[in-house]
Design a protein that fits this description.
single chain; Aldehyde Dehydrogenase, Chain A, domain 1; seven-stranded mixed sheet
């Protein structure tokens, strides 16, 4: 079975329901010593798990998928209660996408990671062949964020397992019970003991996992924490994938379908209370349509239903924590001080006890304002106008982040042209935000948004080590470049430089007499 670790509690982590502020439950704050013990168990489990076939691994993943479907409403409610998000988003943005990811990698990991022949050019004429095989790494440590506490870690767990790795999951201290649920799901399908372990705790537990010398760390979170993880992992040469958030731009040209663009902007800015790495945090609107488009945004925003996440009609629910809501308050006040205008929202929703902040639309913003530079991670939508395509691109790229972006226009040629000039890991045309839910495509960013990829082929390749196998099929002759050297050898090497290294078979033919002379020389030694 998989193991949901039950360590002696040295101190506790308390999880709160952000909608009510009430205690949700308590879990162990796992010590560094117990993390070390978990790593040792993981290494032992890996030795057996790596020998399993892709077909065997896929059976566990697909059975786990059936468990999720059987407990769909229960899991959705757990996600809503512990993270604060609406039930609708628990289903649409957490559970449904990861179910798709599970079936995709269960069915396609073997094909993606199959041995691959390499074209080695003219070396093949010398009787050589090369291929790549992919080997699992060992133990993968997954440290996800609290904003998507089910889909992010479960997707990374599934990909790691399908690649043949053992996994230790350290869920966020804000959402530990969702992490424990992932362990429980695999326990129910009898995953071999210690192949997946869940260790709960705060930053000290995560630091111990990073410092344990495991083979890979998958981290989702802040830039500051990501830098500390990279620094600590470097001491052990531990490979890391860092997804560090964004300040994602949305560009709306005058020829866009404004109704759809407005709906997209509102969903992109306010779903999950704006707590998505790919949330629209900067909205750039062509000056010609800015006034009408802004009015449309405000009207639609005012119609959103803010309530607790357990209600099916809730559009915007609670934020994850008091700490996060204070960051939003700080940024909105900064906008006010710097001359921006709050058109709607701009304050806590006093109708609720928990961490509710009203969806907020802001006009007269500029890229120089603090709220346009730092990641807000809350339900705010600041609007900036532009005059030309070139200005829109410049404004969009004027950021330390580069995770996702979107371009809205009926002119698809223009949309694709602009998209290719934006410095972001994913750029959508007439679409926004949701591409993390497409498990078949790579996810990751440029600049301060981190490095490495999750999801898709490139995400799976992060979880294996490519091994090159090179074979010499000519067994009767020595290599021309072997010792001992001689003037004849030097002349042969000149021929390699002039003819063989050209990549041309015709040029290489000029080398053959000298090559045969050199081989004859070596065979006589």
């Amino acid at each position: 079975m998989s193991a949901v670790l039950s360590f002696p509690i040295q101190d506790e982590i308390i999880s709160y329901n952000p909608a009510t502020g009430e205690e949700f439950g308590r879990v162990a704050n796992t010590s560094a010593e117990d993390v070390k013990a978990a790593v040792e168990k993981s290494r032992q489990a890996f030795e057996k798990w790596k020998e399993t076939s892709f077909k065997q691994r896929a059976k566990f993943v697909m059975k786990a998928r059936e468990v999720i479907l059987d407990e769909l409403d229960e899991i959705a409610r757990l996600i809503s209660d512990e993270s604060g998000k609406p039930i609708a988003e628990s289903l649409s943005m957490e559970i449904a996408p990861v179910l798709d990811l599970m079936q995709y990698f269960a069915r396609n990991a073997a094909k993606i990671l199959k041995p691959e022949k390499i074209n080695i050019g003219l070396y093949a004429t010398l009787g050589r062949t090369s291929k790549i095989i992919y080997k699992p790494l060992g133990t993968v440590g997954i440290i996800p964020a609290w904003n998507y506490p089910f889909s992010i870690p479960l997707g990374e767990v599934v990909m790691s397992l399908m690649a043949g790795n053992a996994v230790i999951l350290k869920p966020s201290e804000l959402t530990p019970f969702i992490g424990l649920k992932i362990g429980e799901i695999f326990e129910k399908v009898n995953l071999p003991t210690d192949v997946l372990q869940v260790v709960t705790g705060d930053g000290r537990t995560g630091a111990a996992l990073v410092d344990s010398g495991i083979e890979k760390i998958m981290f989702t979170g802040s830039v500051a924490t990501g830098k500390r993880i990279a620094e600590s992992a470097a001491k052990h040469l531990t490979s890391v994938v860092l997804e560090l958030g964004g300040k994602d731009p949305m560009i709306v040209f005058a020829d866009a379908n404004l109704e759809l663009a407005a709906q997209g902007a509102i969903w992109g800015a306010f779903c999950n209370s704006g707590q998505s790495c790919s949330s629209v945090e900067r909205l750039y609107v062509e000056e010609f349509i800015a006034e009408d488009f802004t009015k449309l945004i405000v009207e639609k925003t005012k119609r959103l239903n803010q309530d607790s996440g357990d209600k099916e009609t809730t559009d915007v629910a609670a934020m994850s924590s008091e700490r996060q809501i204070k960051i939003v308050e700080d940024h909105v006040e900064s906008f006010r001080r710097e001359g921006a205008k709050i058109l709607t929202g701009g304050k806590r929703n006093e109708n609720f006890r928990g961490a509710f902040y009203e969806p907020t639309v802001i006009s007269n913003a500029t890229n120089e304002m603090r709220g346009m530079r730092e990641e807000t991670f809350g339900p705010t939508l600041p609007i900036v106008t532009f005059k030309t395509e070139e200005e829109a691109i410049r404004l969009a790229n004027d950021s330390d982040f580069g995770l996702t972006a979107s371009v809205w226009t009926k002119d698809l040629s223009k949309g694709k042209r602009v998209a290719e000039k934006i410095l972001a890991g994913t750029v959508c045309v007439n679409e926004v935000l949701y591409t993390h839910g497409i498990g078949q495509t790579p996810w990751g960013g440029f600049k301060q948004s981190g490095y490495g990829r999750t999801h898709g082929k490139y995400g799976l390749l992060e979880l294996v080590a490519p091994q090159h196998i090179h074979v010499n099929h000519f067994l009767l002759t020595p290599n021309a470049w072997w010792m001992p050297y001689s003037s004849n050898a030097v002349e042969t090497f000149r021929g390699f430089a002039k003819h063989f290294a050209s990549g041309s078979l015709r040029q290489t033919a000029k080398l053959m007499p000298q090559l045969l002379k050199r081989i004859k020389e070596l065979r006589s030694k």
